[in-house]
Amino acid sequence: MDYCASDGGDGLIKADGPPYAECVLCREPTEYAEASKGLPLCPVCEWQEAQRTACSG
Length: 57
What we know:
Blueprint: E1 20-22, E2 29-33, H1 43-53
Antiparallel strand pairs: 1-2
């Protein structure tokens, strides 16, 4: 059983080009379209958040 499964329904859309959405933590450009719904994170903040919330055990 996978306790860390994500439903993937975050509403974020990968962008092919500008305008990019701002990261909600550091305000750097993300890889997501500005029109995306959800809380976009830049690659650095996304990685750091994944480390904080990773399953241990």
